[in-house]
Design goal:
The complex is a heterotrimer of chains A (about 300), B (about 300) and C (about 675). Chain A has about 300 residues and is α/β, with parallel strands linked by helices. Chain A contains nine helices and 17 strands. In chain A, the strands form four sheets. In chain A, strands 1-17-7-6-2-3-4-5 form an eight-stranded mixed sheet. A five-stranded parallel sheet of chain A has the order 12-11-10-13-14, with helices on both faces. With about 300 residues, chain B is an alpha/beta fold. In chain B, strands 2, 3, 4, 5, 6 and 7 form a six-stranded parallel sheet that branches. Chain B has a two-stranded parallel sheet with strand order 1-10. In chain B, strands 8-9 form a two-stranded antiparallel sheet. Chain B is elongated and about 65 Å long. Classes of the chains: A alpha/beta (about 300), B alpha/beta (about 300), C alpha/beta (about 675). Chains in contact: A-B, A-C, B-C.
């Protein structure tokens, strides 16, 4: 696949990206930008469907149809398209990954476009509560855990350890929870990635502050990737892959806990490279976690 | 009431100092040795000095070499393909564009220009460093870079001249540069795109007014909400950063600190920014961060 | 160059290869006291984070028990060859009924365990081959595998030497199938409970030196296994084989049910013994010794120097030297040495500091003055007359006594002057259980709490570090690391000039720093970290508020309890969060010892982990508690901030509190 474009578009241009066959979106009423982004998506396609992944059942619901994630061929058969648009703002990482991997199985792989809308701001935690750098922003209700995403999950063991590349955001506990649980057992090397350039200046400082305990760890490399540059995320993973010497650390895992464009880059990389094993903690997003609409992005790849 | 350390933030300085050392040790902030940091800290005598310093460090946006590399990626992979297409330059894909930058060649529609100091007083400063980084980190072929003196002699096939700079502050520097190199006339042959890694809103407005033929595409845009002495919106006399001290008191304390150190304090209409690059510090960053005197050690290097 | 503080950071078992674990493990004193695995039967090892659970079980695994640094290994070790499995819980999360179907899920898990344990078993033979046994080396050779085993595993080659490679292939097959069951061939499953004993049998049959060869398998992180998987393990516990014993490790409170696949249950005591690491480590005086030895070991690793001839790092790793380490001369010397490096100020010296230090003295004077005003004595008595440099302790508790609203002793003032003039064991101040005994610590915490920027020396000293960290060695090391980092920065041990010694203020700063950081880290404890953080913050604020009471009528309130009879009234959410808090050692539960017999009036005490005491400037000693009714406890645990604020005001009279430090202790 080739990255065709990674543009910032205004509202007018967003309406002129072209006419695509099928569009997908997620929770579209979460906040201002969710409503806006899903509307842009629906306007660019002939038919659109809401998508929801259920981690407890390993099933993807698209419109009124439900598919188990090992039966995704049925998805593209049901919703044939030569071109698709995904609303990356409202779709979660697993949903993006599964929909794309479904269409990859189609003989004529479709052209893909993605909308992503940055918010004006993120909701801060109420100062009357216990606030520490890791939870300065009030974004998620809880996390459903169970990190594996079949069929992408790989088995780790004493002879198959992993290099974990973690894209980071404002929620300081997400990666720490994974690393704490692992206790250094299977993730032998950890690279943390901060979104620089950030969506807005000083937001990188928030992420840095929220994740500063990670900086105290040993065996932890710090890397950077543009917060709204999926191709950069893709290339970063490519470098990580290239850097894997043979030996015990022979798996590459990714934790897409940063911005959605970074997660998109990770999903696209996974489609091209079987080596990548994504993990995800399924946050239950809080309504009104963001407010306003800042910039709109339109990303396009030529074919899956 | 004078500037004071609010009770709730009594431990802030220790916390920030520790974190800053961590940033230094992990090369997130680069170009500053621990000794240099210790020396800057030794400038601070009272708890109020320390508290003010903690706020300064906390709000410092530092761009290390790696981060600048990421910003260059943003220019090459997001900004330029989009802008070039708007100019009618055919770009089949971002991947193709990047590959073409790596190949270079005379027929390429883009040239990157080293922005130098128009008065020629500081040769080879940021401009040269950025060109090197464009090449080293961005993979841009050397054949696509040129000096300011060569702008006028570019072939007709060059559709676009890209000027990469670190900071756009008030805009007057770029304005002088444009005048010195006659960019307005040149813009009729080759479209100029100016990409500062960081830009301040008022600078953007200034250039929009004075150089409307110059397309400005900053990577990061700073505004009123990033000024160090900004007010808290709900209570305009109060400092936004801690929502406790009065803005006037913060300024007064900064003033007294600067006077004691024999360094200049922020000018009345200064941008009050806290931005540093690994290769240089913009002159509109608060002087307390980078200025030195016989009685004051600097932290950042100008 | 390693800084002297650096070795204190390497405190996770994971970073250590099996080979180096042995030389990092310190045999805890309780090895002398209880039989660890001597009896037959399965054991469960309980412990919270940081008390060394994984390190403990890896110590008993083959990599460590046959470590080449050990000599004269008894051959009896061959009867209990330790295998270690830490399941990839992420991957195991796929071997569940929703993905594979119930029957397949269990078979797949047992197969997963079998393959991994067999791999470790092969490696154990390599360890044994290199080990230095008492009666000379053992030639393991290349045992032939029995027809039964080769058939069960579908092996092509009959020797152990090629088994590991075949196991890797099988793991790949398992992985492919689990990831995508519809599109990969189903492996033929083996059960670990049958395959491991068979393997042991085959090894035993291969050599006369190995006739009693048997395994003990440790399964770590038991609480993170799916319930169906726990059943599979419990089956093996309930029905042990002669050549395989299964032991498990998990956090306390985290597992309540030991169901097997049938109706039987694994019964505590009968089928499964328990070693509670936290309890064992906390036994009287034992944690101090262990902590002191760990401290000296780390300092040695950082090239630091100290004077303690009896301390020898090589003696720490083997149980053989334990009785020497538990002897009085050794213990005394080691503890003295560490107490010299990390001195603890006595309460008396802290009291003296209060009188001699102007801001603290001012604070005491304020406190006494407010008390005099309350008693209507401010016109008659000058507060300075009640501050004595010769008897600072008495002066300090006067601050509290004068602020009591209830009728104070009318002779209080004369008693004070008498005690100051000639203190005796019978006067109300200095007698055992008298006013100083009961109130001094509380007052000291109260006075210091009012000066939050000052290093609070009530937390300084090796002994106090132990009291706050016990039984968590990770916390202890964090305190030491912070202390040495602040004191010596990046200097290595041999660059430190003169005697290694850290002053009290530095230790106090370290305690605060570590406590603050650990408080922040609550956020990442389990899936309810965010709520646990909120609960801890709320509890801390209650205790802070009590501490700020001038009257100190109940000094050192730092834990709460709920009547057992009232417990049933707690909501499910509250119970869940209480349990989470205990699993992650944010709260400890202690049974009320006074009312053991009568269940109804008995209470359950819930103690805030003392490591958080410096963050809230409260006492770490378990002294007084506040009893919460279920509705209040419920609000504290899971209701809104507004409701909590109401409860807070009801519990602690705002008028009694010092107004300083009213802001919630958050950084932003």
């Amino acid at each position: 696949m080739k990255f065709v474009r990674q543009d910032v578009v205004n509202e007018l241009e967003a309406g002129q990206v072209g006419r695509f066959d099928v569009g997908f979106y997620g929770r579209d009423n979460l906040d201002d930008r969710s409503r806006h982004s899903s509307a842009l998506t629906r306007a660019a396609v002939q038919k659109s469907y809401q998508v929801r992944y259920d981690p407890s059942k390993f099933s993807l619901t698209v419109g009124n149809e439900t598919f188990r994630v090992d039966d995704l061929e049925d998805l593209f058969r049901k919703f044939r398209a030569r071109s698709i648009v995904l609303d990356a703002t409202t779709m979660e990482f697993p949903e993006i990954l599964y929909v794309l991997s479904a269409y990859r199985m189609q003989y004529d792989r479709p052209r893909c476009g993605f909308f992503y809308v940055e918010p004006e701001g993120y909701k801060q935690r109420d100062v009357n509560m216990s606030v520490v750098p890791g939870n300065a922003f009030d974004l998620s209700e809880k996390f459903l855990g169970n990190l594996q995403l079949p069929p992408f999950t790989r088995m780790l063991s004493s002879s198959n350890k992993a290099h974990l590349v973690a894209f980071l955001g404002f929620e300081g506990d997400r990666l720490m929870r994974v690393l704490d649980a692992d206790d250094g057992h299977f993730y032998e090397k950890v690279s943390i990635v901060f979104g620089v350039p950030p969506f807005q200046p000083s937001w990188d400082l928030h992420a840095l502050m929220a994740n500063s305990s990670l900086l105290e760890r040993q065996n932890t490399t710090v890397l950077y990737c543009g917060a709204n540059n999926p191709r950069a995320a893709y290339m970063l993973l490519k470098d990580a892959h290239a850097g894997m010497a043979s030996g015990r650390t022979n798996r590459l895992s990714v934790a897409p806990f940063g911005t959605k464009p970074m997660a998109l880059g990770a999903a696209l990389f996974r489609l091209d490279h079987d080596i990548l094993s994504p993990i995800f903690d399924h946050p239950v997003r809080k309504p009104y976690r963001t407010f306003g609409v800042h910039r709109r992005h339109w990303y396009e790849i030529d074919s899956l | 009431m004078a500037f004071f350390v609010p009770e709730a933030h009594a431990g802030l300085f220790e916390e920030v100092e520790r974190r800053f050392r961590l940033l230094l040790s992990k090369n997130i902030v680069t170009g500053i040795t621990e000794t240099q940091f210790d020396k800057w800290l030794s400038n601070l005598l009272t708890e109020e000095d320390q508290y003010l310093a903690a706020r300064l460090l906390e709000n410092l946006t530092f761009r290390s070499e790696q981060m600048v590399g990421s910003a260059i990626d943003h220019i090459l992979q997001c900004i330029l393909p989009c802008e070039l297409r708007r100019l009618g330059v055919p770009i089949p894909s971002v991947d193709d564009f990047i590959a073409s930058l790596e190949r270079g060649g005379k027929g390429h529609p883009v040239r990157f220009v080293e922005v130098d100091d128009p008065k020629g007083e500081k040769p080879g400063k940021s401009g040269a460093v950025l060109m090197r980084e464009l090449h080293r980190l961005g993979g841009v072929n050397a054949s696509l870079t040129c000096l300011s003196s060569a702008i006028a002699s570019q072939p007709a096939g060059v559709k676009c001249l890209v000027f990469i700079d670190d900071m756009l502050g008030t805009g007057t520097q770029m304005e002088s540069y444009s005048t010195a190199h006659n960019l307005k006339a040149i813009s009729e042959k080759h479209h100029p795109i100016y990409c500062p890694l960081a830009a301040f809103e008022s600078g953007l407005a200034h250039l929009a007014k004075e150089c409307p033929w110059l397309q400005v595409c900053p990577v990061e845009t700073f505004g009123e909400s990033h000024r160090f002495f900004r007010s808290y919106t709900e209570q305009p006399l109060i400092w936004a950063i801690d929502r406790i001290n009065a803005v006037a008191d913060v300024r007064a304390h900064m003033e007294s600190l600067c006077q004691r150190g024999g360094i200049r304090s922020p000018a009345a209409f200064a941008l009050e920014l806290l931005v540093g690059f690994h290769h240089a510090t913009p002159n509109n960053t608060l002087p307390i961060m980078h200025v030195s005197s016989p009685t004051w050690h600097n932290l950042l290097t100008r | 160059m390693t800084a002297i503080a650096d070795p204190f950071l390497n405190n996770r078992a994971d970073y250590l290869s099996p080979a180096s674990l042995f030389s990092q493990f310190i045999v805890p004193p309780f090895f002398q006291r209880i039989s660890i695995f001597a009896d037959q039967g399965s054991v469960r090892i309980l412990g919270g984070r940081g008390c060394g659970k994984t390190m403990f079980i890896r110590y008993f695994s083959h990599g460590s028990s046959f470590d080449t640094n050990r000599d004269s290994i008894p051959e009896s070790e061959l009867k209990t060859v330790g295998l270690y499995l830490r399941p990839d819980t992420g991957f195991c999360g796929l071997m569940i009924p929703e993905w594979l179907g119930l029957h397949q899920a269990k078979l797949a898990f047992s197969h997963y365990v079998a393959l991994n344990l067999l791999k470790d078993a092969c490696q154990s033979l390599a360890s044994i081959g290199l080990a230095r046994f008492a009666n000379g080396p053992i030639d393991v050779g290349d045992p032939l595998l029995s027809p039964a085993l080769t058939k069960q595993l579908g092996l092509t080659n009959l020797h152990v030497s090629s088994l590991e490679a075949e196991l890797e292939v099988k793991l790949v097959e398992l992985e492919s199938w689990v990831r995508n069951p519809k599109h990969s061939p189903v492996p033929s499953f083996v059960s670990f409970a049958s395959v491991l004993p068979r393997f042991a049998q085959d090894v035993a049959a291969s050599s006369t030196q190995l006739t009693e060869f048997a395994f003990r398998a440790f399964i770590d992180e038991f609480e993170n296994l799916q319930s169906e998987h726990r059943e599979v393990v419990c089956d093996a516990i309930k029905h042990p084989s002669s050549r395989l014993v299964v032991h498990i490790a998990h956090k306390k409170q985290a597992v309540v049910d030991f169901k097997t696949s049938s109706d039987e249950r694994v019964v505590e005591g009968h089928d499964l013994r328990t070693i509670d690491l936290e309890e064992e480590l906390s036994m009287e005086g034992e944690f101090e010794l262990l902590a002191a030895e760990l401290f000296l070991l780390r300092v040695t690793q950082g090239q630091g120097k100290f004077d303690c001839p009896l301390f020898q790092p090589e003696l720490l790793h083997d149980q053989r030297h334990l009785s020497h380490r538990l002897s009085k001369p050794y213990r005394d010397q080691v503890l003295r040495c560490v107490r010299e490096i990390l001195p603890s100020p006595s309460a008396a010296s802290i009291a003296r500091e209060v009188i001699e230090d102007p801001p603290l003295r001012r604070r005491l004077r304020e406190m006494i003055l407010k008390g005099l005003v309350l008693q209507g004595l401010d016109k008659k008595v000058n507060p300075d007359d009640l501050i004595s440099s010769s008897q600072p302790q008495a002066s300090i508790v006067m601050g509290a006594l004068l602020n009591r609203r209830s009728q104070i002793d009318k002779d209080l003032l004369s008693k004070y002057h008498a005690a100051v003039a000639s203190p005796s064991d019978s006067d109300p101040f200095f007698k055992v259980g008298g006013w100083i005994d009961n109130n001094l610590h509380g007052c000291l915490f109260h006075l210091y709490a009012g000066l939050p920027r000052r290093p609070n020396i009530n937390y300084a000293g090796f002994d106090r570090f132990c009291m706050m960290a016990d039984p968590n060695l990770r916390f202890f090391q964090a305190l030491c690391h912070a202390t040495l980092s602040i004191a010596y920065k990046r200097q290595s041990g041999n660059e430190v000039p003169g005697q290694l010694k850290v002053d009290i203020e530095t230790q106090a700063m370290a305690a605060k720093q570590v406590s603050d950081k650990l408080f922040q880290d609550i956020l990442q404890l389990g899936s309810h970290g965010s709520k646990l953080l909120e609960i801890t913050g709320r509890l801390g604020r209650i205790f802070e508020a009590f501490n700020r009471r001038r009257s100190q009528s109940e000094p050192e309130v730092n834990h709460f309890s709920i009547d057992n009879a009232d417990r049933a009234n707690l909501s499910n959410q509250a119970e869940l969060l209480l349990r989470e808090a205990k699993i992650w050692s944010v709260l400890y539960e202690a049974k009320d010892t006074k009312n053991k017999a009568d269940y109804d009036i008995a209470q359950t005490d819930l103690i805030l982990n003392p490591i958080y005491a410096p963050h809230f400037s409260i006492s770490y000693r378990k002294r007084r508690k506040v009893t919460l009714r279920a509705p209040h406890a419920d609000i504290l645990l899971c209701q809104s901030t507004a409701q909590y604020e109401v409860v807070l005001k009801q519990l602690v009279d705002p008028a009694d509190q010092d107004p300083s430090g009213e802001e919630p202790l958050s950084l932003f």
